[in-house]
Design a protein that fits this description.
Layout lengths: L6 H6 L13 H10 L5 H23 L5 H13 L19 H4 L8 H4 L4 H5 L3 H7 L6 H9 L3 E3 L2 E2 L15 E3 L4 H6 L1
Helix pairs in contact: 3-4, 8-9
Organism: Rhipicephalus sanguineus (Brown dog tick)
Protein name: Small ribosomal subunit protein uS4 N-terminal domain-containing protein
Keywords: Nucleus, Ribonucleoprotein, Ribosome biogenesis, RNA-binding
Amino acid sequence: MVRKLKYHEQKLLKKVDFISWEVDNNLHEVKIMRKYYVQKREDYTKYNKLSRAIRDLARKIKELDPKDPFRAKANHRLAEQAPGTGTGEVGLKSVWTPGFGHSLGVISIKENLEICDRVTASSFCRRRLPVIMVRNQMAQRVKMATQFVEQGHVRIGPDVVTDPAFLVSRQLEDFVTWTDSSAIKKHCG
């Protein structure tokens, strides 16, 4: 049994509905953010919005007639380029340019709308620089890799990257290395 609310508590909580409390996706969101060590919730919400846009577009393309030539063209463009994102500097702080889908690695197989329909925020999180570093065995954990990136120990090609939200395309994945002046590089060999 719950005690009766005092007068000042009633005044503060008069607009709160305890019966039908709005359940948000907070537990799942926190789990994903902790797994991929996403430090800013805004980054996760941007990934969520992008993945939702890709899924919506894939569903609209599926609704088109299979014999329609535009459907084949749109299917190819979605798998290759997915709208609103890009391959240039693909960190969230950058300007988004067209051209990413399969080449970024969010979509695993070209020419497949079913795969586009399963794109989630986790798909974008798996392309973050610290996660790629763990996959390339440059760090043991994502948190450690994030610290290395923030401290300026990592470069992609000739450019030093200090933003852990940087999304690495498939083409750039091979160019993730330690900076020349990095103490980690000197220690590792």
